[in-house]
Amino acid sequence: MNNPTGKLYLVPTPIGNLEDMTFRAIRVLKEADLILAEDTRTSAPMLKHFEIHQKVFAHHQHNEHQSSNEIIKFLLQGKNIALISDAGTPAISDPGFFLVREALKFNIAVECLPGATAFVPALVNSGFPTDKFCFEGFLPLKKGRQTRYKFLAEEERTIILYESPHRLLKTLDEMATYFGADRQISVSRELTKMFEETVRGTVLEVKQYFETHPMKGEFVMCVAGAAAKPAKGKYDRDEEEE
């Protein structure tokens, strides 16, 4: 890890099961000069479990613009810094994008390790096409939410969304309105954990299920793409002309 300037490492951490931590991720965290964590309290048990004792500083959505300036200074001094989020891969619906962009402005090396990301197992488990998909993360809470639904209603690729427990039923209601109550969806929660669960069916069927079952943990929602619209005559006309 000896560089003229330091290197910024983005290190995925388990989304639930600690056995999903990679040997490489543990090594990079142990060798880093310091670790940036989305929430130091959340990361502490995981770091302790793997006997990682480096200094840990908070880097989250409320301070990332301010803290990035100091982090860049450390990197330019030759320090190697590892960024982790509460779970999964940094910058995927978590802090990280802004810091990466700032580091690249100063020609600082950035390396992202492969590892846990919640939407990948949810997509593969869904049974929907995986060759092309659209990752939306969390939809806007208010402004722009309706517009986004209308746009996605025509999306022919598999759609992937993140959602929190207290908004799940409302989101399913909205999906019924904009996608249709019979659109096929797959909802996964507590991925890699003891009570991991994936529920598949129509929007209406999945909503009815969660109205009477626990809604704990983070949710990944996979939505079947809209049926492809038939071509509007171009090839038919060509055939007729032949």
UniProtKB/TrEMBL annotation:
Keywords: Cytoplasm, Methyltransferase, rRNA processing, S-adenosyl-L-methionine, Transferase. Gene3D superfamilies: Cobalt-precorrin-4 Transmethylase, Domain 1, Methyltransferase, Cobalt-precorrin-4 Transmethylase, Domain 2. Its EC number is 2.1.1.198. One of its GO terms (cellular component) is cytoplasm. It is found in: Cytoplasm. InterPro entries: 4pyrrol_Mease, 4pyrrol_Methylase_sf, 4pyrrole_Mease_sub1, 4pyrrole_Mease_sub2, rRNA_ssu_MeTfrase_I, SAM_MeTrfase_RsmI_CS. The keyword Manganese does not apply. Residues 7-205 form the Tetrapyrrole methylase domain. Transmembrane segments: none annotated. Its main location: cytoplasm. One of its GO terms (molecular function) is rRNA (cytosine-2'-O-)-methyltransferase activity. CDD domains: RsmI. It catalyses: cytidine(1402) in 16S rRNA + S-adenosyl-L-methionine = 2'-O-methylcytidine(1402) in 16S rRNA + S-adenosyl-L-homocysteine + H(+). It holds the Pfam family TP_methylase. Catalyzes the 2'-O-methylation of the ribose of cytidine 1402 (C1402) in 16S rRNA. Belongs to the methyltransferase superfamily. RsmI family. This is Ribosomal RNA small subunit methyltransferase I. It comes from Mucilaginibacter gossypiicola. The gene is rsmI.
